[in-house]
Write a structure and sequence with these properties.
Blueprint (H helix, E strand, L loop, with lengths): L4 E5 L3 H13 L3 E5 L2 H10 L3 E7 L7 H11 L4 E5 L4 H9 L4 E4 L4 H17 L5 E4 L2 E4 L4 E4 L2 E3 L3 H12 L5 E2 H9 L8 H14 L6 E4 L3 E4 L4
Parallel strand pairs: 1-2, 1-3, 3-4, 4-5
Antiparallel strand pairs: 6-7, 7-8, 8-9, 10-12, 11-12
Helix pairs in contact: 1-5, 2-3, 6-7, 6-8
Length: 226
């Protein structure tokens, strides 16, 4: 069986080696790129890249531009690495379709855990079952969502979030529970990660975005309107 390919993009060779060593121990095949332009070349040349780990600050083409170009071609999960920790940077990453956001310095073990979680969920979503909730049809095998028969475009994380909501219809879900089940790690920080994704998901669902109810001071509940 071919190894799962991960593209690691960082202008610091020491950082690339560190990430490569840890991912290699997990059995992944790591493809390296030292700047944004090389990253895009590798992205187009290599087949079946399962995930991209992408630094923000790089020469020739920064991580934001790489993310924009990749998203024009693919929904491949992206983990963004950055030395910055400002809120606007994190929100910009989510707006561009970043699935995870990790600030440097970070624990390589935590990074590997998040990589494993994303890829495990991607494999789980290949079960072939469909869920229908109030005109929203989720096809897990095809990683596809249709509203009243019309397909809508969702990012990897938006798809996971919607599937989790629909599978837990009528249940009040705290932000902590959503993070631990959809992001699959203990999140220390405020709730903007969840709230940003819910806002975008509601917008893409149109009128059916109203199915996602806000429970003030707690979290959210998915409930199909009668």
């Amino acid at each position: 069986m071919d190894k799962i390919k991960i593209l690691v993009v960082d202008d610091e060779s020491r950082m690339r080696k560190l990430v490569k060593d840890f991912l290699g121990r997990e059995g992944y095949q790591v493809i390296e790129a030292g700047d944004g332009m090389e990253a895009m070349e590798k992205f187009y040349d290599e087949k079946n890249i399962a995930l991209i780990i992408l630094d923000v600050m790089m020469p020739k083409m920064d991580g934001w531009q790489v993310c924009r170009e990749v998203r024009q071609e693919s929904k491949v999960p992206i983990i963004m690495l950055t030395a910055r920790s400002e809120e606007r940077d994190e929100l910009q990453g989510f707006d561009l379709g970043v699935d995870e956001y990790i600030s440097k310095p970070f624990s390589p073990k935590i990074l590997v855990a998040r990589v494993n979680a994303i890829l495990r969920r991607a494999n789980v979503l290949g079960g072939g079952d469909e869920i229908d909730a109030g005109g929203i049809l989720i096809d897990k095998a095809a990683h596809q969502v249709k509203i009243d028969g019309k397909e809508i475009e969702l990012s990897f994380k938006e798809f996971e979030l919607l599937a989790y909501f629909v599978e837990n219809q009528g249940i009040a879900l705290s932000r902590e529970k959503i993070l631990n089940n959809v992001w699959d790690y203990d999140y220390f920080g405020d709730a903007r990660t969840i709230d940003t994704h819910v806002k975008k998901l509601r917008s893409k669902l149109g009128e059916k975005g109203n199915y996602i109810k806000t429970i003030w001071g707690m979290g959210y509940k998915f409930e199909v309107d009668a």
